């Protein structure tokens, strides 16, 4: 099986992630080597792509069939809890604080995804940008569009 093209990430999934990540201060979207990623000051806080289980690099994803995978950062107890929770979460095979999550359009809790991505952003953003999230009048942690 060959590497899936970026456009295999379901458009609905991309739109939901854009609604979450695109409103964070100085966050920007770009195409990655596969899929799409969101960054703040050249640090990736979210990356979505289709995992191809036929590729050796995908063995960490525990997927038997192509699946949409989201990676993000988590810290401390949250990292430990997520990586030991079981599906849809798993520990990535790289990075000290990188969590993978299989996205299922019917079962994904998008409110939870929004909370996790805001925390991932906080983990990587400069302190001044992360402090802007403390002012929730801007709706940084609001429920994403459904």
From TrEMBL:
Keywords: DNA-binding. It comes from the Bacteria. One of its GO terms (molecular function) is DNA binding. It holds the Pfam family YjbR. This is MmcQ/YjbR family DNA-binding protein.
């Amino acid at each position: 099986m060959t590497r899936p093209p970026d456009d295999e990430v379901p458009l609905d999934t991309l739109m939901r992630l854009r609604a979450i990540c695109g409103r964070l201060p100085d966050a920007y979207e770009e195409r990655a080597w596969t899929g799409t990623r969101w960054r703040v000051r050249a640090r990736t806080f979210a990356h979505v792509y289709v995992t191809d289980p036929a590729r050796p690099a995908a063995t960490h994803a525990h997927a038997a069939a192509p699946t949409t995978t989201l990676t993000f950062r988590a810290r401390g107890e949250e990292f430990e809890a997520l990586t030991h929770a079981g599906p849809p979460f798993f520990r990535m095979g790289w990075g000290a604080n990188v969590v993978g999550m299989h996205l299922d359009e019917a079962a994904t809790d998008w409110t939870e995804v929004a909370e996790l991505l805001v925390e991932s952003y906080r983990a990587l953003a400069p302190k001044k940008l992360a402090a802007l999230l403390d002012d929730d009048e801007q709706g940084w942690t609001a429920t994403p569009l459904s």
